[in-house]
Amino acid sequence: NAGVMQNPRHLVRRRGQEARLRCSPMKGHSHVYWYRQLPEEGLKFMVYLQKENIIDESGMPKERFSAEFPKEGPSILRIQQVVRGDSAAYFCASSGLAGDTQYFGPGTRLTVL
Amino acid sequence: TQLLEQSPQFLSIQEGENLTVYCNSSSVFSSLQWYRQEPGEGPVLLVTVVTGGEVKKLKRLTFQFGDARKDSSLHITAAQPGDTGLYLCAGEAAGWNYQLIWGAGTKLIIKP
Hints:
The complex is a heterodimer of chains A (113) and B (112).
Chain A: E1 5-7, E2 10-13, E3 19-24, E4 31-37, E5 43-50, E6 53-56, E7 65-68, E8 75-79, E9 88-95, E10 103-104, E11 108-112
Parallel strand pairs in A: 2-11
Antiparallel strand pairs in A: 1-3, 3-8, 4-5, 4-9, 5-6, 7-8, 9-10, 9-11
Chain B: E1 5-7, E2 10-14, E3 19-24, E4 29-37, E5 44-49, E6 55-58, E7 61-65, E8 71-76, E9 85-93, E10 100-102, E11 106-111
Parallel strand pairs in B: 2-11
Antiparallel strand pairs in B: 1-3, 3-8, 4-5, 4-9, 6-7, 7-8, 9-10, 9-11
């Protein structure tokens, strides 16, 4: 049973470009969570999605950031017009039900030049 | 805003020594989880504690949830180099059964 998969593992973008981060949840899981981790800090909740629905995006910046989890395919975290402050590790987690244990992917390390 | 404070932030000890890592908050959590994170990887769940006063053991690791469910500790007995890593605590806020509140982590180095 494959775990949570994220790609790419490393992403380099120049300021102003777009970053697309993908997350495939664990098989059978329909709940996806995105977190951001800055160096020397804990994870910060960004958004919680179920298939085709955003349940809670209270941790996500209002501008430039968006997330989706379509009926088919992976969840996507999209950052438009990236700035240097967006450089961080972005982790995706999935669970079978809301409130169940969240299993984390290996993360995508975004570097904005 | 709910916060989880972990201490110490960094700990470097010799193999064979014992250590304790703390996770404290002024808020009550419905559950608290401990994770270990290796460089370049995502956090891996070690244990979840749910009941106030609960103690769970995982080989040489002992986890305790405070009676008031505001704090937790991780004790490692006879630490080994393989225990080296970043240890993170995360609390499930009451009423928010999916939004985890994270501590900043304790970076642990065990020297052979």
